[in-house]
User: Fold AAA family ATPase from Sinorhizobium glycinis.
Amino acid sequence: MNIALKSPPIPGCDIPAYSPSGNECPLFESAWSRQLPLLLKGPTGCGKTRFVAHMAAKLGLPLSTVSCHDDLAAADLTGRYLLKGGDTVWVDGPLTRAVREGGICYLDEIVEARKDVAVVLHPLTDDRRILPLERTGELLEAPPGFMLVVSYNPGYQNLLKTLKPSTRQRFVAIEFDFLPRDREIAVVSEESGLDENRVAPLVDLAHRLRSLKGHDLEEGVSTRLLVYCASLVDSGVTVRDAVLATMIEPLTDEPDVKSALIEIADAVIR
Assistant:
């Protein structure tokens, strides 16, 4: 079943800037129009969340974003009974609210949530598109304008936190990565206000540090951190201090590794 655009972008409403790296935008639109759930995978800070915000605004859809964590349980998404003024009332969670009203429900870093979350999502991610609410006895059918989007970072997967194949195969999947050098320079310059010529060595340093991922570092420098760094430089902070605060300190607490990263930074940022 195809569905038309629910509502056009609101006049005067800003659409978050996003620089496509491939065909992810038409893929998203096609998945939404065919009522298919979407899985975004890629390293931290590569633009997954910005992409969802961009597409939601572009399609004129309400967006509910949930940052998943170790204590996030299914009830946090579906809802629970709460005491209000001496009465016990049911309060919808963000997932239930999105299913009732339509729009995009985005679960960021889904593998961080408790295992019971996947169980709740399963009937929403097949042809049934239903959300059973055991506490209220309701069986909600997702409207045509509802879309479920989840994301995770494959680099963080381990034996305890993985997305099961049975869950992954319920989604259309799009892989994200960092932009090519010239594109990333342009994006960081646009976001921070710093001239591209001054952004270029910062991006070069980020590429050097990303090559260490899996060796001395668990994760590389994100585009988000690059924007932070360029923003500090643009505000008058010295390049070395900005690099230390945004591209080295957030990556490691190990003194030896930190010293090695500083040496690399000093060699690249002259």
